[in-house]
Amino acid sequence: MKRKTFLKQTSSLLISFNLFPLGSCFDTGNNNGLNLHGDPNTINAWLQLNRQGKITLFTGKMELGQGIRIALKQIAAEELDVDIKRINIIIADTGQTPDEGYTVGSGSIEGSGMAIRQAAAEARLLLLEQASQKLQRSIRELQVKDGVVQFINDPTISVSYWELLKGRALNGKITGNAPPKDAREYQLIGTSIPRDDIVNMVTGQSAYVHDIRLPGMIHARVVRPPSYGAELRSFPKSKIMAMDGVIDIIKNGSFLAVVAQEEYTAIKAWNILRKESTWNTKRLLPLQANLFDDMLHYKGKQQIVEEISGNQQNMMHQHEALYKSPYHMHASIGPSCALAKWESDQLTVWTHSQGVYPLRKSLAGLLNIPEQKIRVIGVPGAGCYGHNGADDVAADATLIAYHLPGKAVRVQWMREDEHMWEPYGSAMAIKIKGSINNNGKMSAWHTDLWSDTHSTRPGGKASHLLAAQYVEPKLTMEQGDISGGASRNALPLYNIPTMKVVAHAYQGPLRTSALRSLGAYANIFALESFIDELAFLAQRDPLHFRIDHINDPRALEVLRIVTEKTAWSTRTKKQDTGLGLAFAQYKNRAAYFAVVAEITIDKAKKEFKVKKLTGAIDAGQAINIDGLKNQTEGGMIQSASWSLFEQVDYSDEGVSSNTWDSYPIMRFTAIPDIEVVVINRPTEKPLGAGEAAQGPTVAAIANAIFAATGTRIRDLPLSSKKVNW
Amino acid sequence: MAKITLFVNEKDHVLNISPDTPLLYVLRNNLALNAPKYGCGIERCGSCMVLMDNEAMPSCIRPCSSLTQTKIITLEGLGNPTNLHPVQAAFMEEQAAQCGYCLNGMIISAKALLDRNLDPSDTEIRAALERVLCRCGTHSRIVKAVKNAAKKMRLNA
């Protein structure tokens, strides 16, 4: 039903108001004036209008640098027919916003965005009803211009949303019956409205949790052991306590922290404690050189992810290959940071966690206090790209603040802490067997994949917080089953009559959890490399080979665009250049993405360089075109960095990748040129897009290296040293 | 503790502070400036860049006692939301940000570059920004922003 038709048919709806005050800003930690609405099925949980014509949105999702705030504002402004400048947004805060779990899996537009769209559509309908009564005109005779409801034939007969509400909250239920605007009427959705938070970043206004300065704030650093599971034997207590400005040392089991008035004092004490404390350590095994051997022979759980049995006939070629991806870091530029204050039997925590509600539950478990005593407030941090140290540092700050009632405690991890203690993206091994029939078509496909878990987010459990594993009584994290993320995108989207994907659990030496795209990165690297290998065996153009196995027109369209843009058909004529193609639909159900990598080679120097990446993305209805483009460009560059430069190194004594020298990431002079084409489909559902580029980009580069050099690199990173020059 | 005077953003600031404190912590904690950020503490990431006598320099190691004769300018000293420096304006126009944590180092480095070269090539821009790390992958936009800024500054010159 179209919105106009629906409005004509609707006679009246129950509207009631309450006098609860509007949500306030977050900065004091004071519980007065909060929007304690509770019920996410009410409009009031998602948006509120004040007397001055300002609108406040509430999202349980977190701003991670992906620009979710501007996209959600666009959605609300579109539905309400108001100027976007009227809209303010409050993000993840257990005191104010709905519980939307974690901000993960490129799901914020599909989740929060669609909830806000529906809430705004309901709000608009209720307000039109009100205006209709007030102006004595039927709804179909009314239009809305920037929140002012006007009689179409005489716009001077009007009343604004805020005049109708007079500061009272909109207390309607979200019925699901108010029809959102028809996509053909969109004025804001699908445009590139600039983000309004960048002005704070470029001028040094307070933009991050790192910038919060609470009255009387003190600084702490946590002294982490030299390696996983080490037990604290001794530390130079009197030496540290004698330091000018040191407030306290907190030692609980093997959890050790120092608190000081000045941040630099805490850092100096941290340095001494790191050097002079003694620990009982455990060897980290298997050694890195034996990691994949260990993985492939690991006796763990197995799971058939997918099995499709068809006729296997006329098998001409059979091919098998093994691909390996090492542990990768999130490697946030800003080490994790949190503030906490325990006062009057209440704990307030400021955090850049991706999930304030699950964190609150985990912290309640850590302290063994009721959740209601804790307020967790989300404030942006540096980009996290998944589960990094954000939750852990919040637990650190919580333990320290609990020990020092009345004091606001700020903890920031040191660079070494972030590099050595964040949970990494799991190393993976993927073995693929495939067959081609005598028509040059793929007839059978079999994938075995090995992976550690991609999900150890706290999720309400205290035992997943790093500090909880070192305090007394020590909590141990239960090792889960095969995590769903391990097999993400392992199943080919191509038409192959017989397919089987088997996932094998691995419990490896390093701490792992969700890193942007989870298993999709390594699975697509393997799958899209293997397709290229099969195309080569079948003596087919890798583009045509793919097209022959695809029906979905949207998949074909992204492939068409990138290959046209890069003059794919003339690619073999360029000297010392190679083009590589790859494609995937994220999660096999979200955004479509294809990419061509262009590499140039220098045979004399035995080096290759990624010169250009050209991508095309179809994420259905694009909310903010430039935001989508920015996310995709970033995904391509980040994936190129993982693929060309990165692997976590360790020895039996612990993780040795502890600085930007021992874990280098891509710097400016190595950055390829980037071009991204956005295909906007306003009448389709919006699809998560933030992780679509990670997998295809690595495969496209590997395929380009093969095209230029004839060397097929199957173990990441893709370095010039692995090429047979 | 010692009495140290630093010249930051065109003003003298008299501080009673431990003289070995690296400049970064003084700027953030004593002068309440947010722009320079902690990233690595060993001058490898560029998050903490400031202008020292018009050169882009990391502030995370050099002790404040060694900088009493240095003219220090932070991102806050370049412009503010109502009076943006052309480099700041260009970064906004190009939407050259994701998380934005690296922007301090990027803008400070770009400013130092453009002060000596108003028409830098792509290669020169990349070289000038090489020491600043970005993890979101905003690099190509940042290069565009620096070019845009150069154009603005040439028009103003």
Automatic annotation (TrEMBL), chain A:
Q: SUPFAM superfamilies from the xrefs?
A: Molybdenum cofactor-binding domain (SSF56003)
Q: Which residues form the Aldehyde oxidase/xanthine dehydrogenase a/b hammerhead domain?
A: 203-274
Instruction: Name the domain of life this protein comes from.
Output: Bacteria
Q: Which Gene Ontology MF annotations are present?
A: oxidoreductase activity
Q: Which residues cross the membrane?
A: none
Q: What is this protein called?
A: CO or xanthine dehydrogenase, Mo-binding subunit
The organism of origin for this protein? Olivibacter domesticus
Automatic annotation (TrEMBL), chain B:
User: What one GO molecular function would you report for this record?
Assistant: 2 iron, 2 sulfur cluster binding
**Is Lipoprotein one of the keywords UniProt gives this record?**
no
Q: Which domain of life is it from?
A: Bacteria
| Signal peptide limits | none
Pfam annotation, one family: Fer2_2
Keywords from the named record:
2Fe-2S, Iron, Iron-sulfur, Metal-binding
2Fe-2S ferredoxin-type domain residues are 2-78
- Record-given protein name: Nicotinate dehydrogenase subunit A
Q: Which organism is it from?
A: Olivibacter domesticus (Pseudosphingobacterium domesticum)
